[in-house]
Design a protein that fits this description.
44% helix; 18 helices; alpha/beta; 9 strands; TIM Barrel
Amino acid sequence: MDTSQTTDSVKNVDKQEAFASPGVSTLSGSQTSFSVAPMMEITDRYCRSFHRVLSRNALLYSEMITAAAVVHGDRKYLLDYDSAELPVVLQLGGSDAGLMAESAAIGEQFGYSQVNINCGCPSDRVKSGRFGACLMAEPALVAESFIAMSAAVKIPVTVKCRIGIDRDDSFEPFERFIRIVADAGCDTFIVHARKAWLDGLSPKENRTIPPLKYEYVDQIKSLYPHIQFILNGGLSTHEQAIANSRSIDGVMLGREVCSNPWMLNEVDHLYYGAQQNNRTRFDVVEACYPYIETHLMQDVPLGKIMKPMLGLFHAQPGGRLWRRILSETMWVKGAGLHTVQRALDAVRQTAEDMQRISR
């Protein structure tokens, strides 16, 4: 694990509390949690480091990694992270109980806070490997992996799933899956409140076409009140997330955080009762300069570092300019901190020009 320390300026931003939008009721005093969904080719260590600057309390997830890759592959490459990212959940894909247990133990050795079993990904590649959403048809197999993993680690083991698969719209298969895995000892489920169509829809279509059924999550919670259920799927604002989280234990957002990461700046106040602050997007980018410089000196391409920040100025004056300048230049040889500064200066100038015009 990379235990290199972040600079004081980044730490100071990390320690600041979030700024809440007016008009959004908070969940202060409740036990509702907020997490950022695991997303392939998105939630890597650079993404998580940036998200941690915006929220010190949100639970972050790795990309899904197969158990076989963890056991037989380059562990440092796959599992490395900066200690400032914690808490981070390692999401694993697989159906071999022995491999799942061994990979979970390796994740614990690396310092991950939890491990999560992927039972929700609908891609053909995942299906052919016998993990992801297809495992919802084999709850006993998931329970077997859960038992083996729990015996191998001391950290929590959780499950991320759908409400069902293919054309069956009934509640009963979902309840059966939860019951069998819960009987094995699982006490936390993250539920994407759509079923997955394993034939006929792409992974992208599976994120939008099957209808959302939040009522299934409410219903399963009423049947198993002692189990934690985290709601995922279709949530795009804090207002919506808070409105749908009153009867459950937490919410998880994914794609919306990617397109508008600034919403993480509100998480600590809205969900964890922290004080508000008045930092700006400019403050956050400038506080990240030392982190950017450190990783550039380690020969990390600027594009990898800045990709998670492309949406930071979403719906703000100069936001499209920020994205365009970085997209066109951050992968160019020789791109560095000056590239980021030029983009930020352009956004600042645009904002100042618009402010003058509006007077």
